[in-house]
Design brief:
single chain, 797 residues, alpha/beta, six-stranded parallel β-sheet, DNA-binding
DNA sequence: TAACACTTGTTTTTT
DNA sequence: ACAAGTGTTA
């Protein structure tokens, strides 16, 4: 209560001395007018529309620092971010401004992390024990698969991923199973979609989760809403505590998240949301752009601030991105501009194949690094799908360029790690069905599907957890033979032993016990295959991480760090959260989605082809298409200095090479901001689509090569020779790519040392397009053609 | 029950 | 290409 007055006082205090520069307002001098205005306004709801690169994080950081500096206790501030990483970074920046101690007691984190913490404390009010475990996506899907099987439904008609998506959507819209079953519109929709039983799957899924004392990601938000809805005393408590709420990336919140914010903020309206509608890219996950578009109607007295000056990028990049996003219809009007240098124009490079795309990018990175005296960490390659990373990895490795990949399978999703973590989950929460199923026969101990099936049906019959059946097999009439019974009893006492230690010894200590006694370490160490080795390394890494977790927490003053502490921390971590070594000079490879909020001097947006970017999935709906366009906008605006956009004429996908067409988005960029060479390459499209860029000569050659194949599409470049690693393929891409010094000087008769083929003599050189190719007789590798633009070799004599 | 060969579908993005 | 699922054999 006192805090309410407190805030009012701060605000009047500040507005009185707005124009003075004394020590109290000193932090504000680092801000521009718009930013400062947004920071200073703290007596009501505010919406900060922050264009790309306009200092959004800066505003949030300074705003929090500002509130703290004025004396508002940190634990009164709730600050919600989109990723753990963002939270961590913001925290450390605030610590620099106001000191470590205050920063540490801020409530700052992702929606999921913060409300998981609150649910652990308050969950008993809605029937959850504080040791509940969290199902990740894979766990959820496994459970859904089991349910579909139990219900004897056709798994082609009810595909687990689709079902999970539907359930997730329902949860994010706060539709409980009961509401779902009562909603004739939804039922009708499902009937038409030939999934009439969907509501029952949802129902059962939710029951099973509850029986397992577990929540999935969406539950963390949904149950928070339910908790606040049904327990006003608890809501009141947090309303009083969170006197000021800040939300980052508001354009990516879903209804469930929005309502949590609203429920808390309704008491005092001191809420500041920051976002950019032009960067809303998560609607597939239920994010609702309307949250930001309609924020004002929820809080009518909302003050809107617009940050329009981009400090990140050159004028060319900002203008190019603006010209793209202008094609969208739904957006808040704003005028993002840059006063940085005009900078280089965008470069658009078409290549013959995805393979060549990799080489072109790798080469350009190598060249630019030297020309511009930048480090590898100034470069990023951004793609639409994780599957595209492979080809760039190969190309970079070939050129000895260090890189770091984000995304894909995260550390915690690796099988061996999930297995170990499942032991932890079962120990902390023996009801956890997924964990139980995962570990009961890992390492193999002769308990197969049949036995597990018996336990499961008995558990369902008696309405208890699998663990309880396992613990009292006789009581629950478990009919199995003596051998199986023995093995079950051994497993049961193994886990019971861990459970007894769970609350006394540290997370690190119990983890070591688990590895040893469960037989995991024995199995891991006896596997000497390369994969086995990497698996035991991963397990070791997990143990090391736990040791570090325990010791840092102890240094911070906590005493006994239990397994449950570690588990609740780790369940919400993703790959993005693994500490990156700042010093490492590596090229960054990631999806555009995970690049949100980051920036690099030089950005390569790759794979700009129809059906890939925009993805074929998104194209059917206009809204989907606009989201893809925003995604491309996000990609372009990551760049500070240069931006290169690439596409390939053919791409290997799902075991097949398909011909591809340049993305419509590339055409939408105003050509005034695109380098002239690039324009020549792609702009004369309209005349004949088959005749663009590549020139007739090249296509004819390709057709000749693919002769005899049924070529239904315009080109069907099957198994390009480069797949095998020989750099002999057609190419005339990358007009901007100059030959290396070596390549320029190369003459017939030279002896060269090639990176892979070894020594060889140049027998002839010919011109192909605007490039040269050399025919080389290698001592061991035989006759090869080298494309001088790409070939890596030294002239020996 | 487990190990293996064979078939099938699958890919958008992530807390 | 690849992973997951299915079926066959020991």
């Amino acid at each position: 209560m006192r805090a309410v007055f407190f805030i009012k006082k701060i605000c009047t205090f500040v507005s009185m001395q707005k124009n003075e520069t004394n020590s109290e307002t000193s932090i504000l001098t680092n801000l521009n007018d718009a930013q400062r205005a947004a920071v200073e306004f703290c007596d009501g709801p505010s919406l900060v529309i922050a264009g790309a690169g306009s200092g959004k994080t800066r505003v949030l950081t300074y705003k929090i620092a500002y509130l703290l500096e004025q004396g508002l206790p940190p634990y009164y501030i709730l600050s919600l971010t989109f990723t753990n990483k963002a939270a961590r970074e913001m925290k450390s920046r605030i610590a620099e401004l106001v000191g470590e101690k205050k920063a540490r007691s801020l409530w700052m984190g992702t929606f999921h992390a913060i409300f998981a913490r609150i649910l652990r404390k308050e969950g008993e009010a809605i029937g959850f024990k504080p040791n509940f475990t969290i199902f990740d996506t894979a766990d959820s899907r496994n459970l859904i698969k089991l349910i579909i099987k139990d219900m004897k439904l056709d798994d082609k008609q009810y595909r687990q991923n689709a079902i999970h998506g539907q359930i997730s959507k329902a949860k994010n819209s706060l539709i409980t199973p009961a509401m779902y079953a009562a909603n004739s519109e939804l039922l009708e929709y499902d009937r038409r979609a030939r999934q009439p039983q969907l509501f029952e799957i949802y129902q059962r899924y939710q029951n099973r989760l509850r029986a397992a004392n577990s929540m999935d990601f969406d539950d963390l938000l949904m149950y928070t809403n339910i908790l606040f809805r049904d327990h006003k005393d608890i809501l009141e408590k947090y309303r009083n505590q969170f006197q000021y709420i800040l939300v980052d990336e508001y354009q990516d919140t879903n209804f469930s998240q929005h309502l949590i914010v609203k429920q808390i903020a309704d008491a005092h309206h001191r809420v500041c949301v920051v976002g950019d509608d032009a960067q809303s890219i998560y609607s597939f996950r239920g994010a609702n752009i309307d949250n930001i578009l309609n924020f004002k109607s929820n809080f009518p007295e909302t003050k809107v601030f617009k940050l329009e000056q981009n400090y990140r990028s050159t004028q060319n990049i900002v203008n190019a991105a603006n010209s793209l996003i202008r094609q969208n219809t739904e957006q808040i009007e704003k005028d993002v501009f840059s006063e940085n240098e005009v900078g280089d124009k965008l470069e658009i490079l078409g290549t013959f194949s995805d393979f060549e795309e990799g080489l072109v990018v790798a080469n350009k990175i190598a060249r630019m690094r030297l020309e511009r005296h930048d480090t590898y960490s100034d470069f990023a390659i951004l793609y639409r799908t994780n599957a595209q990373s492979r080809i760039f990895e190969d190309a970079l490795r070939k050129k000895n360029i260090p890189y770091r990949i984000y995304g894909g399978k995260s550390f915690y999703q690796r099988k061996e790690i999930k297995d170990v973590i499942s032991y932890f989950r079962l120990i902390v929460n023996p009801s956890d069905e997924e964990a139980f199923r995962r570990v009961i026969n890992y390492p193999t101990r002769g308990i197969g599907n049949v036995t597990v099936g018996k336990i499961a049906s008995s558990a369902e019959l008696h309405n208890v957890s699998l663990w309880e059946v396992l613990s009292s097999p006789i009581e629950y009439n478990l009919e199995i033979n003596a051998g199986a019974r023995n093995r079950l009893a051994t497993f049961q006492s193994l886990i019971s032993g861990f459970i007894e230690q769970r609350d006394t010894i540290s997370a690190y200590e119990i983890a070591q016990e688990v590895i040893k006694k469960s037989g995991i370490s024995h199995e891991a160490y006896s596997d000497l295959t390369p994969e086995g080795l990497s698996r035991s390394q991963n397990i070791q890494e997990l143990i090391n991480a736990m040791e570090e977790f325990v010791s840092t927490r102890q240094e911070e003053g906590d005493e006994n760090i239990l397994l449950t502490d570690f588990l609740s921390e780790v369940s919400l971590l993703t790959d993005q959260d693994t500490e990156d070594d700042e010093e490492a000079q590596k090229v960054t490879l990631m999806t555009v989605h995970s690049a949100k909020g980051l920036e690099f001097n030089h950005v390569f947006v790759v794979g700009m082809e129809e059906d890939l970017f925009p993805s074929s999935m998104a194209k059917s709906e206009n809204r989907g298409l606009e989201e893809e366009r925003r995604l491309f906008y996000v990609a372009l605006t990551r760049a500070r200095k240069t931006c290169t956009v690439t596409y390939a004429k053919s791409r290997f996908k799902n075991g097949q090479t398909n011909s591809a067409k340049i993305s419509r988005f590339v055409m939408e960029i105003d050509q005034a901001y695109v380098s002239e060479e690039s324009i020549l390459n792609y702009s004369n499209k309209g005349t004949s689509s088959a005749d663009d860029f590549w020139g007739t000569m090249r296509q004819q050659r390709v057709k000749r090569e693919s002769l005899g194949r049924a070529a239904t599409k315009d080109i069907a470049p099957q198994r390009a020779p480069e797949r095998r690693g020989n750099i002999v393929s057609v190419n005339n891409a990358a007009p901007s790519m100059p030959l290396s010094q070596e390549a320029k000087e190369l003459q017939v008769g030279n002896i060269i040392e090639h990176e892979r083929f070894g020594r060889g003599e140049v027998t002839s050189i010919e011109l192909s397009g605007n490039d040269r190719r050399a025919f080389v007789e290698f001592e061991s590798a035989g006759k090869k053609q080298l494309l001088l633009k790409f070939a890596k070799f030294n002239i020996i004599e």
